[in-house]
């Protein structure tokens, strides 16, 4: 099998194993064979890589111009211009699965995937080696994952609640590592539906001063907005607010009630919960 076919097949497998709403970035060539970005602007052949995952890339992907272009075109999955450790691992898997030596400076593989090779689904892992692919169809987002948020209908629109323990450590506005994965299906839906506006509301329990709780709730709502923004959802689409302890959903007299009150609510404004 030709080397370019091996690499395309390997990329499909690697993208599948990313899970969530990972979709390979579409980029095309100019007639003069110069690469272009998604706004039709030429890309310098000596692309720079930035992001926490760059140091994890194999040498041929990190140090050669064509390797860098290949990574940015196919594995910058949230289109933020940075390579995360997870994206780097997927690129490495694609490169390694093709059977090429990581120190081979003569690599002449393709620097982009064909349209037909692009991954547009999500996966479930069943054991350490098996990946079961789930087709998402042509809608560009995962209906089952969106249903998993358990949206409920409100006067403003479809609303879902994420408790503090899912997103943050106690008294912190820094998202837990797993919180990004929790938000990926929502980001994919919003990218595929650019007309949908979003309300993000932070809430706390009654412990602490009113000023502290108000500030913490605002910072947490902003952290969720910023995470979605980094995943390609324009920040102008968000209405962000903090409410401190003023809108409890349960009694603050019990530890369970306080746990339920520490939350972030995301509302798809004007949408119906039964869409999912």
Summarize the structure.
This protein is 36% helix and 13% strand. It is of the alpha+beta class.
The shape is elongated
> Which strand-content bin applies to the residues?
5-15%
Flag low-confidence runs.
Answer: 19-44, 99-138
The sequence of SSEs as H and E is: HHHHEEHEEHHEHEHE
Strand order within the widest beta sheet: 3-4-7-5-6
Report Rg.
Answer: 21 Å
Summarize model confidence as the mean pLDDT: 76
By DSSP (H or I, 4+ residues per run), the number of helices equals 9
Helix proportion? 25-40%
Most strands sheet: 5 strands, mixed
Distance between the termini: 42 Å
Give the number of DSSP strands. 7
Structural domain tally: 2
Briefly note the structural class of the backbone: alpha+beta
Care to describe what's here?
The protein is α+β, with helices and mostly antiparallel strands and 276 residues long. It folds into two domains: 3-135, no CATH class; 143-275, 60s Ribosomal Protein L30, Chain: A (2-Layer Sandwich), CATH 3.30.1330.60. Helix content is 36%, strand content 13%. The chain has nine helices and seven strands, in the order ααααββαββααβαβαβ. The strands form two sheets. The protein has a five-stranded mixed beta sheet. The protein has a two-stranded antiparallel sheet with strand order 1-2. It is elongated and about 60 Å long. The model is unreliable at 19-44 and 99-138 (pLDDT under 50).
List keywords for this structure.
276 residues, alpha+beta, 60s Ribosomal Protein L30, Chain: A, 2 domains, two-stranded antiparallel sheet, 36% helix
């Amino acid at each position: 099998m030709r080397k370019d076919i091996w690499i395309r097949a390997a990329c499909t497998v690697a993208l599948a194993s990313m899970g969530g709403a990972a979709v390979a970035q579409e980029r095309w060539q100019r007639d003069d064979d110069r690469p272009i970005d998604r706004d039709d602007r030429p890309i310098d052949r000596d692309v720079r890589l930035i992001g926490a995952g760059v140091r994890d890339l194999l040498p041929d992907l990190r140090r050669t111009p064509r390797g860098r272009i290949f990574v940015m075109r196919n594995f910058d999955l949230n289109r933020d211009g940075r390579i995360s450790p997870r994206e780097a691992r997927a690129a490495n898997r694609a490169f390694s699965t093709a059977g090429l030596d990581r120190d081979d400076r003569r690599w002449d593989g393709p620097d982009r995937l064909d349209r037909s090779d692009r991954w547009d689904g999500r996966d479930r892992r069943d054991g350490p080696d098996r990946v079961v692919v789930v087709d998402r169809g042509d809608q560009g987002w995962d209906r089952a994952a969106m249903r998993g948020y358990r949206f409920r209908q409100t006067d403003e629109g479809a609303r879902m609640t994420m408790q503090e323990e899912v997103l943050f450590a106690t008294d912190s506005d820094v998202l837990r590592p797993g919180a990004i994965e929790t938000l990926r299906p929502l980001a994919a839906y919003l990218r595929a539906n650019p007309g949908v506006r979003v309300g993000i509301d932070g809430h706390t329990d009654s412990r602490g001063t009113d000023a502290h709780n108000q500030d913490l709730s605002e910072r947490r709502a902003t952290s969720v907005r910023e995470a979605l923004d980094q995943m390609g959802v324009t920040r102008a689409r968000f209405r962000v607010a903090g409410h401190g302890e003023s809108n409890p959903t349960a009694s603050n007299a019990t530890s369970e009630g306080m746990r339920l009150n520490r939350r972030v609510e995301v509302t798809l404004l004007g949408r119906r919960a039964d869409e999912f």
